[in-house]
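It is worth pausing here to work through a concrete case rather than discussing structure prediction in the abstract. The textbook approach is simple: state the sequence, then state the predicted structure, then interpret. We follow exactly that order.
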Amino acid sequence: MIKKNNQFFKAFKTNFSIIFWSIFIISTLFFLSKSFYEEKKVDDYLIEFKKQNQKIWQKNLQQEQDLKFFESKFYKEIYAKENLNLLNKWEKVIIFEDWDSWKKFFLEDFLKENFTDEKEITNAQKWAKLFNLY
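Step two, the predicted structure:
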């Protein structure tokens, strides 16, 4: 009877140690794989975070350039001219309805009055003739 109990305990002990170590190895593998998965998620998050950071940095740079432009004297002058109808003393506004009226004003009237004698033709007029603008 002692031999039977002894054999039973040896078999139980062997089976128990096999089951224990199997569970231990499986749980260790599970937690290691879970750890690797979480590390991969963190790496993916960091990559995405760096991309978003780069986009924000570029947007910030663009907005900084826009701010410099909007604070510039050039923009203030354009804004005053376009929206407030404020012109310098030497400036004059000319509004053209269509291309033909611009062509007639610039090529026929303005250039002839200001840049040519009756005998000479300027380079601008030569180019205009070449492209059938004059």
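Step three, interpretation. The chain has two domains: 2-93, 94-134. The radius of gyration is 43 Å.
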